[in-house]
Write a structure and sequence with these properties.
The chain is mainly alpha-helical and 113 residues long. It has a domain of 68 residues. 57% of the residues lie in helices and 5% in strands. The chain contains five helices and two strands. Strands 1-2 form a two-stranded antiparallel sheet. 0% of the residues are buried.
Length: 113
């Protein structure tokens, strides 16, 4: 280790550079945040959820009821997703690798055209 630079087999790590990157990121976030609307007031109707223009009921609303039309329209897709969901990591890795192969093939063929 020389100075503040930590040398490793994979390269080096400089905490001052990471600190500088954090400060720049925080400043950028602050600038973006400061451009937000100043009219927001907590505790008013602005904080209430939108419920198709009506006042929401006192009790909680289940997503099944609130998004009934959405789920009804996409019922076949959701049935297909439930059948595909096995809970086994191997299946997800296989799907991910298959997707990567398709994407890389599309990029390679796109570069040839």
């Amino acid at each position: 280790m020389t100075g503040l630079v930590l040398m490793t087999e994979a390269g080096y790590w400089n905490p001052l550079l990471w600190l500088l990157a954090f400060i720049i990121t925080a400043a950028l976030v602050y600038v973006i945040r400061s451009r937000g609307k100043k009219k927001y007031r907590p505790g008013t109707q602005q904080t209430m959820p939108f419920f198709s223009g009506n006042l929401p009921p006192e009790k909680g609303i289940k997503a099944v009821n609130l998004y009934w039309g959405f789920f009804e329209a996409l019922e076949k897709y959701y049935r297909w997703l439930k059948r595909m969901h096995t809970g086994m990591v191997n299946d997800y890795i296989f799907s991910f690798v298959l997707l990567l192969i398709v994407l890389f093939t599309a990029v390679a063929l796109g570069g040839l055209l």
